[in-house]
Design a protein that fits this description.
Length: 167
C-alpha cells in the first residue's frame, strides 16, 4: 500500500496543507523519508495519517476522533464551528482509495468543545463509497491497526534500533 497524497485542514498546526508523494514509474520500490527541524510537524503529519485511519494517535494522547486537541490552535481565536479534515489518498498498484475523516468542533471564548460529530468515509476508484462503521471495517481489512507499528514510526525508533544492533 502506498500513500499518494495527504491533505490536512485545521489538523493541529496544519491550517491547510497538502503533500504528494511522487513515484518514479521506472522503479518497483518506493520509500519516503521526511527530514526537517524539530517542531515543524513531522510527527503530527504521521499522527494525521493514524487519526484518519484509526481515529487516534499512535504516539500522542489523542484516543478518539472527537478529541479537541486535533483542532488547529489558530481556530481558538475564531468563535464558531470548525471542521478538522484529513484526506488520505492510497494506492495498492491496482486500485486507488480515498479515506476521509472529519470532526466538528465549536469554539467559544478560546475554548474548543467537540460537537460529537465525526465522520469517516472510504471510497474506491470504482465508485464504491462506505461510511463510518462500514468504512472502518474496510480500512481494518486493508490496513489492520495491529500492523501499523511496522510501517509508521518516528526517527527516534531508528536511532534506538541502530544503537541496539551495533556490531
Amino acid at each position: 500500500m502506498r500513500i499518494e497524497s495527504i491533505k490536512l485542514s485545521k489538523f493541529k498546526q496544519f491550517k491547510d496543507f497538502k503533500i504528494e508523494f511522487s513515484k518514479d514509474n521506472n522503479q518497483d520500490n518506493d520509500f519516503h523519508v521526511i527530514v526537517a527541524k524539530m517542531g515543524v510537524g513531522k510527527s503530527n503529519l504521521l499522527e494525521s495519517i493514524n487519526w484518519c485511519l484509526y481515529g487516534k494517535e499512535i504516539f500522542g494522547k489523542i484516543t478518539k476522533p472527537t478529541d479537541p486537541d486535533v483542532l488547529n490552535n489558530n481556530c481558538l481565536n475564531d468563535d464558531g464551528e470548525h471542521i478538522v479534515r484529513v484526506n488520505l489518498n492510497l494506492s495498492d498498484g491496482k486500485e486507488s482509495y480515498l479515506i476521509l475523516r472529519e470532526s466538528k468542533f465549536k469554539v467559544n471564548d478560546k475554548k474548543a468543545i467537540s460537537l460529537n460529530e465525526s465522520h469517516l468515509s472510504f471510497s474506491k476508484e470504482m465508485g464504491i463509497i462506505l461510511k463510518d462503521i462500514d468504512a472502518k471495517k474496510e480500512i481494518e481489512n486493508l490496513l489492520p491497526e495491529d500492523l501499523r507499528d511496522q510501517f509508521f514510526f518516528k526517527g527516534e525508533r531508528l536511532d534506538n534500533y541502530f544503537d541496539e544492533n551495533k556490531e
